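Q: What structure does this chain adopt?
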Amino acid sequence: MAKNSSAADRRQAAREKARQIAENDARREKKAKTILFTSVGVVVVAFLTVVGFLIFQSMQPVAGPRNYAEGTMTVAKDGDELKAYTAPGIEEPGENPPPPIAESPLGSDAAVVTVYFDFQCPACKAFEDTHGKTLNKLVEEGKIALQYAPVAFLDNASGGNKYSTRAANAAACVADSGQVQRYSDFVMAMFAQQPQEGAEGMEDDQIIKIAEDAGVDVSAKVEPEDSDASDVRSCITEQAFAKSVEKETKAAFDERGLSGTPRVLINGKETESFREQDPQKFPLEVLRAAGGN
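A:
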């Protein structure tokens, strides 16, 4: 009888021990799940916080350079100098845009030639080589307004150093400094020394040298809102307007009908005459738009 009782006690003790082990295992599993869910929750919250911050950042306004409106620089003659204006059709000119072209000596009937270009684009260089001097001459003669629309979508064609963006940023720096008279000279000089497509783009010090050779005062003051750059030189090296370049490039493709460069418009209407074999067709079309003067 004692033996049976002892065996029963052992079985009871074994069952109790098994129960305790099961309870301990359950508690450990519950604790592990709690830690796991807590960790996942922390990660999710952190992820959502980062995503929310990035969305918030993307929704913040990006300030462009002075004398630009929607990423473009429109120049026209006023007396003995060139001045910046806002071209017709600009829907969001910014907080302090240049005066409308209607206030220029050309008036509300001004012939406006718009040129979209990428500084790394070989076809844009060909356009500049063929028609750049003619367009600048017509501007100097007070016959047309020229709207420069630089974009940057060929960074991958510059050996990885984002030459398209840095070149467009440099042009924005010149504009922000108020050197409207030198802007077209800088654009022409940049195309004259365009790097070969696929090769490494020019470095900042080379761009600065081109600007100086084009008559740009690289010590002239700039006032970018999103950078500590204080002059054209530091504006170029710090890429003070790179975000603005990126924003306006995206808008050009997504909202303004751009599909490639060069893209040329005369009074808001797209033209292909510059692609003709006869190099006189495009200038003649521009002159007709200007009233044949």
